[in-house]
Specification:
Cytidine Deaminase, domain 2; six-stranded mixed sheet; five-stranded mixed sheet; 15 strands; globular
Length: about 400
């Protein structure tokens, strides 16, 4: 198959629409459903991300994509009991490494992952299919599917769930093209290998980055490689915990990603873990309620007449002071940026979310100020010397 006709492009008025190869066959097989234009953009970007994560970490990898940027990305490290609880998978006694990767990728930012497109580095097993089964998702791309897993996924969305199998041996051309306003752009494909070699130029007084933080920095950098720029990524424990994408200002990226990382950590507080949800509340409604409960808009779910729709009993307020005290316990977080930090305010914001390790290209005229701000907080920072813009 050299081309595949699609229903429409980014929007219903954009017709005709298709994906095709100028040379050779398409490296995919649509096993179920009818993926659309944006589905394929998410699928192909996501597949590149998880393929690189697998090679870099040597572990199965998964990502949850929305609108051509990842909402989460992770490798297959076993989940703790606490992590199982905050990712809504505590009813499983044991999970495969691939399903752990997906639980992490989906669980980092569940609000953004609603209706995601999933990419898996390995053949989809039944554990992973069962996790996907109960989430609101548009589709999945993987190098293969176990027979039982395929049947589980085919039953989603009344039999219309998008399932794409990709040839893992496919290597794209070294030069890529795209059209904007009828004008063709050409560039060399970004085939930069991201590994520990990029983490050797230490520029701060603290020059120690432990091995687990190096893995987190590599995960963050690879995630940024496929995130719409400007972008910043916080990572911890083998997964992205906060991704800020597509912002014009880098400090806004740092704040956005930091707020998401904070929400990830706030979900681990006892007040959130013990929220008395009604048994009839759906997963997405629980996520929405938690997102509001841990914000300054908590009265939207705690006001009389509202809390009764969500909770069995009225929860206590999670005050701003309590939230700050809890967030002050957050530590060991890694942060990467797709371009240099122009001012130390980015470091100040990152510090408030427990960041202790940073990888960024360097090269700003204010590098000295950024470095001194890191030194103030004993943050270890390296200059990678490479930019990771993605558009």
């Amino acid at each position: 198959m050299r081309e595949l006709e699609l229903k429409y492009g980014c929007n219903p008025n954009q017709k005709p629409s298709k994906i095709f190869m100028n040379n050779g066959e398409l490296p995919i097989n649509v096993l179920n459903g009818k993926p659309g234009y944006i589905n394929f953009l998410d699928a192909f970007n996501g597949w590149q991300l998880v393929s690189e994560l697998k090679k870099a970490a040597g572990l199965p990898a998964a990502t949850s994509f929305k609108h051509v940027s990842p909402a989460g990305a992770a490798v297959g490290i076993d989940l703790t009991d606490l992590e199982k609880k905050i990712y809504w998978v505590d009813d499983y006694s044991k999970l495969s490494p691939l399903s752990c990767a997906y639980a992490r990728a989906r669980g980092a930012d569940r609000m953004s992952s609603f209706g995601d497109f999933i990419a898996l580095s390995d053949v989809c097993d039944t554990d992973t299919a069962n996790l996907i089964k109960r989430e609101v998702s548009d589709g999945v791309i993987a190098p293969g599917f176990e027979p039982e897993a395929l049947e589980i996924l085919k039953a989603k969305k009344k039999g219309n769930y998008n399932i794409i199998q990709i040839d893992p041996e496919y290597v794209p051309a070294s030069v890529e093209h795209k059209e904007v306003f009828g004008i063709t752009f050409e560039q060399g494909r970004n085939d930069l290998v991201i590994d520990e070699k990029l983490l050797t130029e230490m520029v701060t007084d603290n020059k120690e980055i432990p091995n687990d933080a190096k893995i987190d920095l590599i995960i963050a950098l690879i995630t940024l490689k496929y995130t719409q720029s400007n972008s910043v990524c916080y990572a911890k424990g083998g997964q992205a915990i906060g991704i800020g994408a597509g912002q014009q200002s880098r400090i806004h990226c740092t704040r956005l990603a930091g707020n998401k990382a904070d929400n990830w950590f706030l979900r681990q507080n006892e007040k959130v873990l013990n929220l008395p949800f009604l048994d009839t509340i759906k997963r997405a409604d629980r996520d929405n309620a938690i997102d509001v409960y841990i914000s300054d808009d908590y009265m939207d779910v705690l006001a009389d007449g509202e809390w009764q729709k969500i909770f069995k009993t009225k929860p206590q307020v999670f005050t701003r002071e309590e939230r700050r005290m809890w967030l002050d316990k957050m530590n060991g977080v890694s942060l990467a940026s797709d371009a240099f930090f122009p001012f130390g305010d980015n470091i100040e914001r990152a510090h408030r979310s427990g960041v202790e390790y940073i990888a960024q290209p360097g090269g700003s005229i204010r590098d000295d100020h950024v470095i001194s701000t890191c030194n103030k907080y004993n943050i270890a920072m390296c200059f990678t010397g490479i930019r990771l813009f993605h558009h």
